[in-house]
Amino acid sequence: MFVAKGALSSFSVNDIPAARQFYGRTLGLTVADGGMGTLDLTLPGGGKVLVYPKDNHEPATFTVLNFLVEDVDAAVQQLNDLGVQTKIYDDPGLPTDDRGIMRAEGLEIAWFKDPAGNVLAVLKD
Which parts of the chain span the membrane according to its record (predicted)? Predict the structure, then answer.
């Protein structure tokens, strides 16, 4: 039987200083330097994410991190006020409003990207 002590997620970026600025200052997460040039993110609720540098980084084409919020409209406004674009999809398969919010089947979600192009989202809790 496999028994793990814990778990964390990870994803790559092409610019660690830009990631530190974005995740720490823009999104307000606790960011610590990790080993070998990595960053350790502490998420609301205590979860951990390892962000690692990769010279040939290719942005994830899927959502790598979801932030649960009480009010998606308010979260989108806060992100937009910080200069974060939330209208990243213009796709009939993902019908979003002019602010980038999709409301379907009880789901409210808006996507945005980090400086490395990875997809993140705010999602109604």
Answer: none
| Residue entry with tokens 């609301």 | 44
The pTM is what? 0.93
Domain CATH code at residue 88 = 3.10.180.10
Q: How far apart are alpha carbons 116 and 53 in whole angstroms?
A: 10
Rounded distance, CA 94 to CA 90, Å?
Answer: 7
Distance from C-alpha of 115 to C-alpha of 13, rounded to nearest angstrom:
8
Domain limits for position 72: 9-124
Distance between CA atoms of residues 20 and 53, nearest Å? 11
User: And the tokens for 124?
Assistant: 């109604």
User: What's the rounded Cα separation, in Å, for the pair 125 and 13?
Assistant: 27
Tens-place pLDDT, residues 42-101: 999 999 999 999 999 999 989 999 999 999 999 999 999 999 999 999 888 889 999 999
Q: How many domains does the chain have?
A: 1
Neighbours of 103 (CB within 10 A): 15
